[in-house]
Amino acid sequence: MHLSxxxxxxxxxxxxxxxxMILPIACSLYYNESDLLPLLxxxxxxxxxGFSSWWFNRRSFELDVKDGIFVAVFGWILVSxxxxxxxxxxxxxxxxxxxxxxxxxxxxxxxxxxxxxIEVVPHGxxxxxxxxxLLGGMGFLTLTIIFLPKGMGGLRIFRAESSPGQVLTxxxxxxxxxxxxxxxxxxxxxxxxxNTLLLWLGGMSFFDSLCHAFGTVSTSGYSPKNASIGHxxxxxxxxxxxxxxxxxxxxxxxxxxxxxxxxxxxxxNTEFRWYISFLLFFCGIVSLILWKDNTYxxxxxxxxxxxxxxxxxxxxxxxxxxxxxxxxQSAQMFLYVVCFIGACAGSTTSGIKIVxxxxxxxxxxxxxxxIFFQPLSVISIRLNKRPVDSAVIDLSICYFIVNIFMILAGxxxxxxxxxxxxxxxxxxxxSSLMNIGPxxxxxxxxxxxxxxxxxxxxxxxxxxxxxRLEMFSALVIFYPSFWQRG
Length: 486
Fold this sequence. Notes:
Distance between the termini: 9 Å
């Protein structure tokens, strides 16, 4: 591995992280609260480490695949560790394990929290907590790539952090990596600004609007309120949030194509059509169950609450407007299924991703058709009206199987070390691996993760990272051959 180049990139990553604390520091100054010095000291320390690593490794070399994976995995771990310093210095989260868990949850856009009373935390720290969503939603390593020297292998970092589902789509933004990242971040920040303005104009405070926008477009779920979006009891806020959760779940290549007027590309996009179909089915069936069971008095209320929760879980956002564990068992069953899906590849969401389900379903249909009806035929599987290579189909099936295996194995491990019920154990792994946040059982929408032991929290934090890096990049480091020269 090129250690000097890795240190150079890590240095830039730390500079980006330390500089990002400027806004929380300004927020602390505005509210005149006790978190100013912890934020300031933490920022200065991270910037010092970052500039030192960057300055003493200024000679740039090409990064290879192993370097990119190493930066992706250990970059997230290092930044999450250092980002928890303000909470530890302030005393809001005195435990390093808890602070690391909270920050890893923020950067990976999981939204799981160990805080039992969020609203007592000072505004500056709350803003920093939500800002980790803003940075992690698009992948903060993609932001680092913008500042990399030309030709230093930013594409390899991007591939290490991005979804295998993006391989399936076969889409590209622009030829140059830096241009790609600028377009990505421009679209992403534009959606955040628009979401903030709509919430603010609807009567939400500017601070809350910013924090909720950061958690919505990034499909993350941190809220400055204990009751999440449900704190406001506003249909307007619910529907605005639903719209931007939906947009956060759309692959960003479609926004770029829309800006160029390429509406045909949007029309033929297989994953987008499946995304709409999944949402219509699950939102419709859950809303119908709530209405038929008289959970809510009117059909419109049933649609509002049912659609919000389905959208929140399918896009792995994790916001809530109601305690869905009080809903009928049939509605909870569909919500549980939704947790296994995820939205589009190339979006801010996590999860298995719809494109994998599209490929697997098309493969199953083609195989059955070939065996029973057309044994001599060659049936191709197509996405966006283009044939899919067999190696890509294998990748999709493998990715699905590994996810299910990790859920089962992780759930069993949690049951052994935590002595908890299987519903909570399985739901905790699904929540962390799919980066959803809330789940079922003891981690339901009105609960948190504070009761887990330190071992359990570290295990769940690792699952968050594995899920955010889409499995393979985080697991390949356990191969002995990864650490061999050559």
